[in-house]
Specification:
Strand content of chain B: under 5%
Largest interface: A-B, 48 and 47 residues
Shape of chain A: flat
Oligomer: heterodimer
Low-confidence stretches of chain B: none
CATH architecture of chain B: Orthogonal Bundle
Helix content of chain B: over 70%
Radius of gyration of chain A: 23 Å
Order of helices and strands of chain B: HHHHHH
Number of helices of chain A: 6
Number of helices of chain B: 6
Largest sheet of chain B: none
Largest sheet of chain A: 6 strands, antiparallel, barrel
Low-confidence stretches of chain A: 97-105
CATH topology of chain B: Arp2/3 complex 21 kDa subunit ARPC3
Radius of gyration of chain B: 15 Å
Mean pLDDT of chain A: 78
Structural class of chain A: alpha+beta
CATH class of the largest domain in chain A: Mainly Beta
Number of domains of chain B: 1
CATH superfamily of the largest domain in chain A: Rod shape-determining protein MreC, domain 1
Strand content of chain A: 25-35%
Strand order of the largest sheet of chain A: 1-2-5-4-3-12
CATH architecture of the largest domain in chain A: Beta Barrel
Helix content of chain A: 25-40%
Number of strands of chain A: 12
Chain lengths: ~280, ~160
């Protein structure tokens, strides 16, 4: 029996080695949230990103100067402010009076530059040159002057990983700014969509979508995209709504991290959409 | 084997670096060539299935670590690439004597496999799967082959330890 086993191992050694390695690889995937693996990953991407940042700093004679960065930051601030004003415009005068208590949110912004993009149809991740030393924390939303880009999922001292809208693991609660219809926006590898929308729902092509108050991670009223197609599925009962993001993600270079994180208590209580 | 593997991994560090930080600059929409697959195919065609699988496993691990992606996905796909490409090793015909088109064909196959399994393991739910496979697998594979032409013409594997 033992000899037979040795003979079998010798004959199929290549296949056995490959099968074992493939099995190990598969078994590692669910362990990604383990703290030790998390620390190792943070350290590794931080080190690698540091080398790239150093090279960029040496060769980056065409990079944006400080003034451009400041202007982009101001642009993004104006975008957020403009969106708040748009929201206000939709309210009537009486509601405005009632909303006197409402404090206009002022989001502090941290400018950053994309130093690496993990380009893929399904795993859109950016590495940016700002980290915990810049007060960036996991869960902070990332925007540019056009709207939402994604959310910070890992931070090292000087670098962070941003999970973008074009990542199948990223889901965000959004609402129609006109009708206040709420939905969960996902990425299917090609398009952003909201599925299982009742056909009776007031969601029309051309409507603007912003982040919803129901989001456990992202502050409300950050522009996300515009509805460009509505398809009826499942015997005409449900629709699938396709959304064009405001941000041109493949060409994003400069971005801003919104220095806002919802309270830990809320985060723990509500559905945490970062967890796969 | 351990010594050869360590040397190969050292060779792969700059390849991973270029793949992460420079290759995305030549991506078209989301279609991006895979430099790691090209070099992994060279090693596997020269040294066989076992070496290819083990090298792919560790290179995938390093790529997952440095890219901040999900650890395990590239480990799986690169192991598969190493094993598949290594299966085309012929004891009587080393990579040097192989037809250039044959090497490019193996790169195309390996790249398609890499993309397809990467997509499979990355997604939670997907609707237009065929389209994603076509974009990532076939178009990505063709782009990788295109990128590999100068490496194949200059027989870069001669310089790999």
């Amino acid at each position: 029996m033992f000899k037979l086993l040795i003979k079998f191992t010798k004959i199929y050694r290549d296949y056995l080695v490959a099968a074992i390695l493939l099995l190990i690889s598969l078994s590692v995937i669910p362990l990604n949230n383990h703290s030790s693996l998390h620390t190792l990953k943070t350290y590794a991407f931080g080190t690698f990103a540091f080398i790239n940042a150093a090279i960029n700093g040496f060769t980056g004679i065409f990079s944006d100067d400080e003034k451009v960065v400041q202007l982009r930051k101001r642009n993004a601030e104006l975008m957020l402010e403009n969106n708040l004003l748009r929201e206000f415009a939709l309210e009537n005068n009486e509601l405005k009076r009632l909303l006197n208590y409402y404090k206009e949110s002022e989001y502090p912004l941290i400018p950053a530059t994309v130093i690496s993009k993990l380009v893929s149809d399904v795993q859109g991740n950016f590495i940016i040159n700002a980290g915990s030393a810049d007060s960036i924390m996991v869960g902070m939303p990332v925007v540019n002057e056009f709207g939402l880009i994604g959310i910070v999922t890992e931070t090292s001292r000087n670098f962070s990983i941003v999970r973008t809208l074009t990542n199948t693991d990223f889901k965000v609660a959004v609402k129609d700014q006109r009708s206040n219809f709420e939905g969960i926006l996902s990425w299917d590898g090609k398009q952003l969509f909201i599925k299982n929308v009742p056909t009776t729902a007031d969601l029309q092509v051309g409507d603007r979508l912003v982040t919803s108050e129901f989001s456990s991670l992202i502050p409300p009223l950050i522009p996300v995209g515009i509805v460009y197609k509505k398809e009826t599925t499942l015997y005409g009962l449900l629709s699938k709504v396709y959304v064009e993001p405001f941000v041109d993600l493949p060409h994003v270079r400069n971005l801003l991290v919104v220095k806002v994180i919802k309270s830990r208590q809320i985060k723990d209580m509500e559905l945490n959409l970062l967890v796969k | 084997m351990i010594r050869n593997l360590t040397i190969a991994l050292i060779y792969f560090l700059p390849v991973i670096f270029v793949q992460l930080f420079f290759v995305p600059l030549i991506s078209f929409r989301f279609i991006v060539p895979d430099l790691i697959v090209i070099f992994l195919v060279f090693y596997s065609l020269r040294d066989g299935r076992i070496f290819g699988s083990v090298l792919g496993f560790f290179v995938g691990f390093l790529f997952d670590l440095f890219s901040g992606g999900i650890i395990g996905i590239s480990m799986f796909t690169k192991t598969l690439v190493g094993f598949t490409a290594g299966s085309f090793k012929d004891e009587h015909n080393d990579i040097e004597s192989r037809n250039i088109l044959f090497v490019l064909g193996v790169i195309l196959l390996a790249s398609i496999l890499n993309s397809v399994f990467f997509t499979f393991l990355s997604i939670n739910e997907i609707i237009n799967f065929v389209e994603v496979i076509f974009n990532q697998g076939v178009l990505g594979g063709v782009y990788t082959v295109f990128l590999s032409i100068p490496f194949v013409l200059f027989k870069v594997w001669r310089y790999l330890k």
